[in-house]
Every structure is written in structure tokens, then in C-alpha cells.
Write a structure and sequence with these properties.
The complex is a heterodimer of chains A (525) and B (288). By secondary structure, chain A is an alpha+beta fold. Helix content of chain A is 46%, strand content 20%. A four-stranded antiparallel sheet of chain A has the order 7-8-2-16. In chain A, strand 7 (165-170) and strand 8 form a beta hairpin. In chain A, helix 3 packs across helix 4, helix 12 runs parallel beside helix 14 (490-522) and helix 13 (455-485) runs antiparallel to helix 14 (490-522). Chain B has 288 residues and is α+β, with helices and mostly antiparallel strands. Helix content of chain B is 69%, strand content 9%. Chain B has helices at 16-41, 49-52, 65-75, 101-109, 122-151, 154-178, 184-210, 215-247, 252-285; strands at 54-60, 81-84, 90-95, 113-120. In chain B, helix 5 (122-151) runs parallel beside helix 7 and helix 6 (154-178) packs antiparallel against helix 7. The longest helix of chain B is centred in the last third of the chain and has 34 residues, at 252-285. The two termini of chain B are 41 Å apart. Classes of the chains: A alpha+beta (525), B alpha+beta (288). Strand 16 (350-358) of chain A pairs antiparallel with strand 4 of chain B.
Chain lengths: 525, 288
């Protein structure tokens, strides 16, 4: 066999072997000696399946908020700007984020869905920033988006739902979405994990005597970021409640000890929390607050209090081992608390745009059925092709080439780790369709008007057929490319598979079919 | 399979006008249906959940439809409709609300197995709709530009574009008549039609314009290949539609059905409309 004349067939054969390796070879870096035992799933291939074929939940959300960009202020003004905007809009300062960009400008974000653009502009003007409506847009900054993505990602993976994750998707119209996908979990499980911002605070509440009687002060002592070394949730000893043990950072420990000592927690307040019995006169309490809701109120223990007070040498023993127990009402709250502490708080609330849940039992049964559908369609096509050509030498290579195209495409999907969904299956079908069309064009062109006398006539005819195929492929690619870029979820996968499939077809498999035909037909002479 | 023997078609017996009138009348009818639909419902074709927003909950229940409805009515859950889905004891509940926590709780309590929950907000739906329209628009415009670049003559190029337009519009009209909603799947099918449609048109134009030989001989040769192509695709799509419907696989039947409509329309448009335009161009258009 002449290598130079048949390089297309050789290339196709090589790529089929590569695809086979990608499909069923040992996955990734685990090495060749594991010999297929890596796969623990029932699926013998390396193909990955998306939600529609494996089951699970997908949630697409936007972040509530508004952003004003290109505002003129220096980093030193940040704190004032934040305070003013928050108080003008009646927001908690934590819901206002001021970022300096360079020395002279910056952005201000507010994390709420309940403020109009005009009010935001007014508040910015009150803070002396000379903002206009053009500078304000709905949505949050990229940094905030990325923070939120990281938080969601950690929450899903620490919450016992494996294999899921959060990604950022940008639409062509400039909107940003966070897409959370979790296989094998239902919608309420996922929403339970990600639905709330999960902002954890430790708040100190204590009585303050004044001329008007006793008032109850609340002051934030600790919040996310003040903790390192977060332990798993534990059951309390004896009749103590469940808790999560955390280690405070040095700065946080200092702040904590200061607040405790100044306000009587370590002296008259020890063991004096009555919030459960009498919320109006609770005494000295340490509240565990999640998203603004007080979930538990604890007393200062008589074991801890002495460690917080300065000793005879002025040293505070607590600083040597600044651990702190955050107590909760029940064990599942403690587990949730741990997740929230570890993953961090979402900067703002999620505005859910779309959600999909598919029961794994249902989805997984689509997999073999979709394969079966494809096979049946292929057999029908085979029947038509045989009927039309009645020539084994033309029909068999044609059908094998069509299958090879699908095989290469699946190998490609396995190699890049594309998670196959029904939309990709639809794309595969589109590729088979255009593939068979093109192969028929090649076959007809070459078989026309009787015998082929020489290799040159053959080349000439093949080139003519290829003009049509190339033109048709170019239009298909142009027709699909907007969808590959616009993020329409399902359609994107469809478009990408179709484009890649058409490229594989036009560049590799369909020319190879021409060579196969030449070998088979020229031998006759 | 008589259609393979395309030499039976005697084009020279019919005038261009006679040939073109059938596809043009069908196109006009399809446009009429779409126009009437637009005037009465406000949208050219019924939009599916993906474009309108709302939620669909699919579940299985051993109860009959009446019992299922009363379960939800008694619970006070808000919903728009409950319909039995294809395949025995499966039901689909639709609601405009995106919070389906209540409905799921009711279903679970009644012992129904939730198979699928699909929801999207109205704003996301309308932005998807906008993107799908932009996608279709750009795809069609891109195809048109490329076709004009390939042939560089007006009549043959416009023939391809008009025929592709008709191949998309006729299935849209049929979707209205048969009550198929526009979903992401059907949009995908319409886009696929652009590709399929152009395939056979380019083949025909290429044979007639770029090869030696008489008009009729070239047309017959192109037809022999083109009709095989399209018929093969149609049989494949019919098979896929039937198989996927029997197996209860979503998305694929809609795509298959729309493609069957479009490919059938393409046979008509290519070998009546396109041929007549090309013949006009070949015998009368060039001289002017």
C-alpha cells in the first residue's frame, strides 16, 4: 500500500486508535498498569455524563446587587463612603462593599435586591462621589462573583454532596450567572446548602446601666475570617449542647478578650445568660447568629472566664491557646455551622434563574435507550444505503465511515472530559446526518458515468465533490457558531458537538472515504 | 422508494411559474398560520417553559389523574395544571411560581416519586428567548452571506436563501398547527435545518452552474444524489422520533419531528422552487 497516496486512511486509522484509547484506556495519570480497574462506575468507558444522563440538580443563579464603577475617591475615603452609603440606604455596612481601583478611583457595590438605581445614585452623591445613573449597573463585580463561586463550590463539596461544583457562565448579553451542578442530589438538598448567605457572627449581648435604667447592648465580636482550625461538629459532653470548636486568629482573640473583660462577661456575667427563659432580660450572653437569626445563646463558662482575665503577671492565659466553642441547639445546626464557617459567607443572596432536577433512576435509563435509538437509526440508514447502491464495496465503507465519525467524536468528548447530555446526543445525530449526506455526495460523484479509468480522473471527481461538501460544512459551522458562543445552556453543547463533528468529518473521515473508494474501485481495472 | 427513480420527473413539461407556485403557496400558507397565531396569541409560535419561565414537576403516582389533582387541591398548593405525560402513571404539573418546595413536599407526602423538576424565572426565560432569536438571526444571516460569497451571482444565491427560509418557516407553521411548543430542542432542530437545507441546494447549484452539460442532465444528476441524501435523513429522523417516543426519551422526538417537516419541505423547495429559479437564470436571466 502506497503510504503517500493513502495518508488520509492511515490518519483515520491512527485517530481511531487514539479515540479508542481515550474512550476505554486507563484514565488520566493513574498509569497503564492499573489496567482498567480504575473505573468504579458501571460504565466501561471514560465518557462523562451530564445531568440529563446521570441525574442530579442544576441551579443557575445571579447575585443580588448593584455596582457603581469609575467613582472618584482615594483609598483613605473608603471607610467613610461605606458608612454613608450604608446609612443612607438603611443597609447593614456588611452589605456595602467599597473597592479601590488604583489611587484615584474605585467601585461601590451594594448587596441587596431592594434598592433602586436612583436611590443608590443619591446615596453615592450623599457620600460626595458625584455619581450618575450611567455608572450604576445591576449585578456585582467579578471579584464578588468569584468569591461567591468559591463559597458555593466549597459548600457543596464539604456538605457531603460529592462530584458537584459551581462555575461562572457569562452570557453574550453581558449577564453573569453562577451555575451549580450536583449529581445525585435533589433540589431541596442543594438549596438547603446554598440557598442562604450563611453569614456567621458571634455577638456579645450584655446589660448596660444608665440613667434611664438597664439597656441591653449587642455587639459583634467575631465573624467569618476570625477563625482558623475549624473542628468537625461534636456532641456536647453531658447535657452540654453540640458545638463546633474553632481557633481564633491573634487579632480576633485580642478583640474577643477585650470585649469580654470590658463588659463584665468574665466577672459578674459568668454563667448569667437567660435568653432562653427571658429574651427581654437575657443578661450576659454570647449569641451564635446565622444570617441575622440568633440560633443559640450561651453563657460565659466558669472554666473559660479565668483564662480571659489578666493573671497576676498581667499575662492572659487564653492567648496561648485561643480556642472557642460555638454552641448550637442541635447537632444538624452544628454541622451546618461548620460548613458555613469553612466555606465562608456568600457576599449576597442568590437570585435563582433556573433549576433542573432529574431523578438519577430516570436519567440513567436514558443512556442505553439513547444508544439504542442511535443504533436503530443507523440500521435504517444502512438499509436505505444498501437499497440505493446495491454494491457492497460502496455501501459498507460508507456506513463504517459514518460510524467512525461518531467514534472519533466520542473519543474527543472523553479526551476533553465533556459531560455528555441529551443536547450532545442531538448534536451527534446531526453529525451523522450531515456525514451520511456528504458520503453519498462523494460516492455519487465518483461512481457517475461508469468506470473510472485513471487515478487522475478519480482525483478530479473527488475534488468536485469536495467543493460541495466544504461549502455545506462551512455554512453549517457558520450557522452553529453563534450558539456555541451565546450561552443558552443546552444549545451550546449541541452547537459545539456539531461544529467539532463537521470539522472531523470534512478534514478527516470524509476524505478518507474517498481514498477507500479509490482503492476498492481502481483495483477492478 | 420509487422516488429514487427521479428520471420520471419531466421538468420541461412545466413552466417556471407552474413549478414555483406550489412551494410559494405552501410558504404563504405557513406565513399565514404564523401571522394569525401572532395576531391572536401575541407570539409567532407557542413558547415552551424554557422561554416563558415557570416550573414543571414530573412525578409518578399510582393514583389516577383525578385523585392526583385532588391531592394537590386539598393541600392548597398553587399550580396551573396537572396533565398525564406519555407513559402510564407519570404526570406533569406546571406552575408559574419558581418555588416548588410546597409542591414537592405535597408530592412526597402522598408517596409520589418526583422524577424531574425544571424551572426558570420569567426574566431568564425572556433573555433565553432573546438569545435564541439572535442566534437564529445571526445563523441565517451568516449562511446568506456565505452563500452569496460562494456563488457570486444573485439569482442562484437568493434561491438558496429563500429555500432555506421556507424550510424553517414551514415547520414553524406546522408546529402551530400540531401544538408543538418552541423549546431549546426545536430551536436546535431549526438551526440544523439551515445546514441540511443548504446541503442539497448547494449541490444542485453546483451541478447546474459549475459543470458542463445541459441543464436537465445536470439537474437530474444533482437530484439523484440530493434526493437520496434527503430521503436517507428523513428515514433516519422518522426512526429516531419513533424510537425516542417509545423509549420516553425527552428532547429527541421534538428535534426529529421538526427535522422531518423541514426536510420534507426542503425536497419540495429544492426541486420545485430552486430548480425553477435556476432554469429562469440559465435561460433568461443571463441574457439580460
Amino acid at each position: 500500500m502506497n503510504v503517500r497516496e493513502n495518508w488520509r486512511i492511515i490518519l483515520l486509522a491512527v485517530l481511531i486508535v487514539v479515540s479508542a484509547l481515550a474512550l476505554v484506556g486507563p484514565g488520566g495519570a493513574s498509569g497503564a498498569d492499573t489496567d482498567g480497574t480504575v473505573a468504579t462506575s458501571t460504565d466501561p468507558t471514560n465518557l462523562q455524563y451530564g445531568l440529563q444522563l446521570s441525574g442530579g440538580t442544576r441551579i443557575r443563579a445571579q447575585l443580588d446587587g448593584m455596582t457603581a464603577e469609575d467613582l472618584a475617591f482615594t483609598p483613605n475615603d473608603s471607610r467613610d463612603v461605606r458608612q454613608t452609603v450604608a446609612s443612607e440606604l438603611g443597609l447593614d455596612p456588611i452589605d456595602v462593599r467599597v473597592r479601590s481601583v488604583g489611587a484615584q478611583t474605585g467601585t461601590v457595590e451594594i448587596f441587596t435586591a431592594n434598592v433602586s438605581g436612583d436611590r443608590f445614585v443619591d446615596a453615592l452623591n450623599q457620600a460626595g462621589l458625584e455619581a450618575s445613573a450611567e455608572q450604576v449597573r445591576p449585578g456585582v463585580t467579578d471579584q464578588t462573583l468569584d468569591t461567591a463561586r468559591g463559597v458555593l463550590d466549597r459548600r457543596i463539596n464539604q456538605g457531603g454532596l460529592t462530584g458537584g461544583g459551581a462555575t461562572i457562565v457569562r452570557s453574550a448579553t453581558g449577564q453573569n450567572f453562577i451555575v451549580v451542578e450536583v449529581p445525585n442530589a435533589n433540589r431541596s438538598e442543594v438549596l438547603g446548602l446554598i440557598g442562604e448567605p450563611g453569614r456567621v457572627q458571634v455577638v456579645a449581648g450584655y446589660p448596660v446601666e444608665s440613667a434611664n435604667g438597664t439597656a441591653h447592648e449587642r455587639e459583634e465580636v467575631l465573624t467569618q475570617g476570625d477563625f482558623t482550625n475549624i473542628s468537625p461538629a461534636r456532641q456536647g459532653e453531658g447535657n452540654q449542647p453540640p458545638y463546633v470548636q474553632v481557633t481564633l486568629t491573634d487579632a480576633a482573640a485580642e478583640q474577643y478578650v477585650g470585649v469580654m473583660n470590658r463588659n463584665g462577661f468574665t466577672s459578674e456575667g459568668v454563667g448569667q445568660c437567660f435568653w432562653q427563659q427571658n429574651p427581654d432580660e437575657p443578661g450576659w450572653c454570647l449569641y451564635t447568629v446565622v444570617d441575622g437569626d440568633t440560633t443559640y445563646a450561651a453563657s460565659m463558662g466558669d472554666g473559660l472566664a479565668p483564662l480571659l482575665r489578666p493573671g497576676q503577671d498581667g499575662e492572659i492565659a487564653f492567648f496561648n491557646n485561643p480556642t472557642f466553642r460555638m454552641q448550637t441547639g442541635n447537632f444538624s445546626d452544628a454541622q451546618e455551622l461548620k460548613i458555613n464557617l469553612e466555606s465562608g459567607a456568600l457576599p449576597t443572596t442568590l437570585d435563582i434563574q433556573s433549576e433542573l432536577f432529574l431523578a438519577p433512576s430516570l436519567a440513567q435509563q436514558f443512556k442505553p435507550l439513547a444508544l439504542l435509538t442511535g443504533l436503530v437509526a443507523w440500521f435504517v440508514v444502512s438499509g436505505v444505503v444498501f437499497y440505493r447502491y446495491r454494491e457492497i464495496k460502496v455501501a459498507v465503507p460508507l456506513l463504517l465511515t459514518a460510524i467512525a465519525e461518531v467514534f472519533l467524536l466520542l473519543g474527543f468528548a472523553a479526551a476533553i472530559g465533556l459531560a455528555l447530555d441529551l443536547s450532545h446526543i442531538a448534536g451527534l445525530i446531526a453529525v451523522i446526518g450531515t456525514g451520511v449526506d456528504d458520503l453519498i455526495i462523494i460516492a455519487d460523484e465518483i461512481l457517475q458515468r461508469g468506470e473510472i479509468k485513471t487515478g487522475r480522473v478519480f482525483k478530479n471527481r473527488f475534488r468536485k465533490a469536495f467543493w460541495v461538501i466544504g461549502a455545506a460544512a462551512a455554512t453549517t459551522i457558520i450557522a452553529m457558531s453563534p450558539l456555541a458562543v451565546l450561552s443558552l445552556g443546552d444549545l451550546q453543547g449541541f452547537a459545539i458537538v456539531t461544529i467539532v463533528g463537521v470539522l472531523i468529518g470534512v478534514l478527516i473521515t470524509r476524505p478518507a472515504y474517498g481514498d477507500v473508494l479509490r482503492n476498492l474501485l481502481l483495483e477492478d481495472l | 422508494m420509487v422516488a429514487f427513480d427521479v428520471r420520471d420527473v419531466d421538468y420541461d413539461k412545466y413552466s417556471n411559474r407552474q413549478l414555483a407556485v406550489v412551494p410559494l403557496v405552501v410558504l404563504a400558507l405557513a406565513l399565514l398560520v404564523i401571522g394569525a397565531w401572532w395576531a391572536t396569541t401575541g407570539v409567532p409560535v407557542d413558547l415552551g417553559l424554557e422561554f416563558t419561565g415557570g416550573t414543571e414537576v414530573q412525578f409518578t403516582a399510582d393514583d389516577g389523574i383525578e385523585a392526583v389533582r385532588s391531592t394537590f387541591d386539598e393541600s392548597g398548593a398553587v399550580y396551573d395544571s396537572i396533565q398525564p405525560a406519555a407513559g402510564g402513571n407519570t404526570y406533569i404539573l406546571t406552575t408559574q411560581s419558581t418555588d416548588t418546595g410546597d409542591i414537592e413536599a405535597v408530592a412526597e407526602q402522598a408517596g409520589y416519586g418526583i422524577e424531574q423538576v425544571q424551572g426558570r424565572s420569567a426574566s431568564f426565560g425572556s433573555s433565553s428567548q432573546q438569545q435564541a432569536l439572535i442566534g437564529l438571526g445571526i445563523a441565517f444571516a451568516g449562511m446568506s452571506v456565505l452563500v452569496f460569497l460562494l456563488f457570486r451571482t444573485f439569482v442562484p444565491s437568493i434561491a438558496v436563501v429563500v429555500s432555506a427560509f421556507s424550510d424553517i418557516v414551514i415547520p414553524l407553521g406546522l408546529m402551530n398547527v400540531l401544538g408543538i411548543q418552541l423549546s431549546l430542542g426545536t430551536v436546535a432542530a431549526l438551526l440544523m435545518l439551515i445546514g441540511y437545507s443548504v446541503d442539497s441546494d448547494i449541490l444542485l447549484n453546483n451541478h447546474v452552474l459549475r459543470r458542463r452539460g445541459g441543464f436537465y442532465e445536470s439537474t437530474y444528476r444533482a437530484m439523484r444524489t440530493g434526493v437520496t441524501m434527503t430521503l436517507t435523513s428523513i428515514t433516519a429522523m422518522i426512526t429516531m422520533t419513533v424510537a425516542a417516543t417509545l423509549f420516553g426519551i425527552p428532547l429527541l422526538p421534538e428535534i426529529g419531528l421538526v427535522l422531518v417537516f423541514g426536510l420534507t419541505a426542503d425536497l419540495m423547495n429544492t426541486y420545485l422552487l430552486n430548480v425553477s429559479l435556476l432554469r429562469y437564470y440559465k435561460y433568461e436571466g443571463v441574457a439580460s
